[in-house]
Amino acid sequence: MADRPNTAAHVMYELATSKWHNVVQRWIALAPDGRGRCGLSVTEKVVTKATPKFVLLDQLTADEAEFDWLMLCDDDVEVGPDIVDNVIGLSNEFDFALSQPARTADGFIDHPIVQVMPGLLGCRIRFVEIGSIVCIRRDAMALLLPFGETGGMGWGLNFVWPSKTLARYPHLTLEEAFTVIKAYA
User: Fold this and answer.
1) In this structure, which long-range contacts are made by residues 54-58, counting pairs with CB atoms below 8 Å and at least 24 apart in sequence?
2) How many domains does the chain divide into?
3) 163 versus 3: which is more confidently predicted?
4) Residue 164 has pLDDT above 70, yes or no
5) Fewer CB within 10 Å: C terminus or N terminus of the chain?
6) Does residue 148 come out as left (phi exceeding 0), alpha (psi in the -120 to 50 range) or beta?
7) ω before 112 within 30° of 0 (cis)?
8) What is the pTM of this model?
9) Pair 23, 57: CB distance under 8 Å
10) pLDDT value at residue 163
């Protein structure tokens, strides 16, 4: 959101400091009135018309097969140093094809299952919230992308994504999605 306070420059910087991964960043500036911070170095496009988030993400990820991982990042998060190396490193270690960092207690949390659990490095569940940061491994990209015109703002995809990777029915129940399968200390 180019016309509102955001953390895009901070997130861009931290993503670019990866020591172990070659990071290619692509961002879209949403500027309803055509103004705001639209000229950041990795801004791929400026959009002035209201457009659903996942329609825009399809435009940015059309060449996903060239990458080992996609990391979808919102512009309203704060991340620590080594975010890319840590998230992808743990995802590789625990064999997560679809993952995200846990949310801290001082951030926005829709579902407590995604909150930081003290003492855990990772937790295998069948749920990934649609934001703020989502990582998708290449083999999962083939199942989850493109998001399609019905992806809209992404609401509900967090119950659809796991079922696609499990090749089951159209969506998971709340109980299935919020079950801890394995915790990694």
Assistant:
1) 54/147, 54/148, 54/151, 54/152, 54/153, 54/154, 54/157, 55/147, 55/149, 55/151, 55/152, 56/28, 57/147, 57/151, 58/145, 58/146, 58/147, 58/148, 58/151
2) 1
3) 3
4) no
5) C
6) left
7) no
8) 0.88
9) no
10) 62
Residue among 124, 102, 104 nearest 184 (CA): 124
Contact 28, 94 (CB under 8 A): no
DSSP 20-41: SS-----EEEE-TTS-SS---T
Poorest-confidence range of 40-44, 100-104, 171-175? 171-175
- What's the domain range around 54? 8-184
Q: How far apart are CA 164 and CA 7, in angstroms?
A: 32
E strand or H helix that includes residue 50 = none
Helix axes 83-94, 8-16, angle to 10 degrees: 60
Given a cut of 80, whether residue 166 has pLDDT beyond it is: no
Is 3 among the domain residues? no
- Residue 182 phi, psi (nearest 5): -155, 140
CB distance 97 to 139 below 8 Å = yes
Tokens of 10: 């901070």
DSSP per residue, 117-159? -TT-SEEE-S---SSSEEEEEHHHHHHH----GGGTT-TTHHH
Residue 155 belongs to a domain: yes
